[in-house]
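Deliverable D4.2, example record:
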Amino acid sequence: MIMYGIKNCDTCRKALKWLQAEGIDCRFHDLRADGLPGAELEKWLSAFDRDTLVNKRGTSYRQLDDAAKAALAGDDPTAEIIAQPTLLKRPIFSHNGRYLVGFKEPEKETLKSWVD
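Output generated by the structure prediction step:
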């Protein structure tokens, strides 16, 4: 399993601690330090609608100018998201071709089921 996130994100830190406590092996991929693979982003954009994937409540989104927000809402938001991966909701999990965004109780149950 791979968890994509940002190392100073509280939710990502909580998720990593929980995964370790549950004995679930996970590799952490820091979107800032390690970058965002374009091929992986394409898979996420196919698997989720933009409201699920893009964090419109975050500082990164609120600081965007109108042109950048229009690019995110347009046909291909890939360049904008790769340039600013903090626009993504976090964490994003990837395991055997399955993807999951967020870390609340339903996501915890799904993560457990992935490794059973």
